[in-house]
Amino acid sequence: MITLSASQADFLQAQVPLKVLFARKEALLPQGEALDARLGGLLRRALAGAGFRGEAGESLLLATPEGHFLVFGLEEDLRHAGGRLAQTLLRHAFPEVLVEPVEDPYALAEGLLLGAYRFERYRQKQEERVLKVSLSGAEAPGLERVWKVAEGVYFARDLVNEPPNVLTPEALAEAALSLRALGVEVEVLDEGAIAELGMGAFLAVARGSENPPRFIALRYAPEGAKERLDLVGKGLTFDSGGYSLKPTESMATMKGDMAGAAAVLGAMKSAALLGLPLELRGYIAACENLISGRAYRVGDVLKTFSGKTVEVMNTDAEGRLTLADALAYAERQGARQILELSTLTGAAVVALGEEVAALFATEEAWGQRVREAARRAGEKVWPMPLERAYREKLKSPVADLKNVGDRNGGAITAALFLAEFVGVPLAHLDIAGPAFAKKAHALGPEGGTGFGVRTILELAQAL
Ligand code: BES
Ligand code: ZN
Ligand code: ZN
């Protein structure tokens, strides 16, 4: 774990067990230059002697008459540099470090916190080390904001990483309820209440499991808020595929099929901590997609909350069914514009790979705002066409529509399906790729990434 603080001390004078100096290729930053001058060129000679090239993420630990220094190769993206630096520092045993100033210490700080994230709850032996990092050139209030953002990302990652036997729909609702302590209003509906509302699509997906579903509605409404943003997150705590069963390898990461919900909860947490001045609503239809004598079948016709009927042609296309009801409910609650996040289709991963989310919007301007928010947040999203010509792929011989198209354009037909259930501007982020990392990366370990939290926060701050 890493804790951050702002340092006003003179960098070279400060008494700290380790100081971090940065290099960009051959060039040192000002503190490194100053130290090198003070040491009569010893620093440069040591770097040259060790073959240090100043490549991104490259590091060299030096003991000098002026103390211990870690020289670290910066990269263009300061968040990524911070993430890699955190992982390097955690491999060394220094309890406290001071980092030299960079142009944007807050981007570096965000990377440091995200890169230091670990999920160790289920290990017998847990890493308990706390590393104190001081940043020169940073101010405490700015670091506080960075920490509050990271708290939301950590919250989302933890939820994704929790195993599905622990993080049931009820447990996800409990996690949402924990936000009450921060002033967020949280309402949880049980199976009876969900049935009474007429959420027939959501209920059908949930029916195969012994663990009952929960519908979660959140509201963060600070006094005087004028703008309002409604969020919807896919909340499948486990997706086996149902009778359209997934092969084991595909099921392996399906505890993460609630990553959209986790992003909504993480963003709510950060927004409340930050005291953002707008109203945020969040809606999550939480359930499991399992098999049993009660589970829904291929061929079932379901009545959604909106009144539209859906013929189920694949029980593994369950997310859109739960989202259809959650989206229509959000609109019923007065949503003016909706951002929805879901690990919705493998097709989005085929199209854009595991790092880039697919962005669909029913209104160009709304999509643009989400895209720009994501760019500021450093989360990769790319626009995809909501091609109306493919709407006919969803035509059913018996119901208003069916829940799958054919094999082609699978991410698009999924988005078109969702768009059937809302009239207000909808942005849909298919995060099936970036929500779950299959290996460690600059900003964190294998597992949940918390993708979406920072985009939501950027969007909320720009409304
Ligand atoms: N949860 C999956 C999508 C998914 C795939 C998420 C890979 C993360 C990684 C979703 O419920 C699903 O199974 N979608 C099907 C849709 C198909 C049946 C039309 C898919 O993508 O295969
Ligand atoms: Zn599925
Ligand atoms: Zn799913």
Word description of this protein:
With 463 residues, the chain is of the alpha/beta class. It folds into 2 domains: 2-138, Leucine Aminopeptidase, subunit E, domain 1 (3-Layer(aba) Sandwich), CATH 3.40.220.10; 148-462, Zn peptidases (Aminopeptidase, 3-Layer(aba) Sandwich). The chain is built from 15 helices and 20 strands. The protein has an 8-stranded mixed beta sheet, with helices on both faces. Helix 4 (105-115) links the parallel strand 6 and strand 7. The longest helix has 22 residues, at 140-161. The mean pLDDT is 97. Bound molecules: ligand BES and zinc ion (2 copies). Ligand BES is lined by residues 239, 257, 314, 316-319, 343-347, 349, 404, 410, 432. Residues 239, 241, 316, 318 line the site of one zinc ion.
Concise overview:
With 463 residues, the chain is α/β, with parallel strands linked by helices. The protein is built from 15 helices and 20 strands. It folds into two domains: 2-138, 3-Layer(aba) Sandwich (Leucine Aminopeptidase, subunit E, domain 1), CATH 3.40.220.10; 148-462, Zn peptidases (Aminopeptidase, 3-Layer(aba) Sandwich), CATH 3.40.630.10.
Would you give the CATH topology of the largest domain?
A: Aminopeptidase
For the CA atoms, what is the radius of gyration? Answer: 24 Å
- Attached small molecules: ligand BES, zinc ion
What count of helical segments does DSSP give?
A: 15
- List low-pLDDT spans: none
Estimate what percentage of residues fall within beta strands: 15-25%
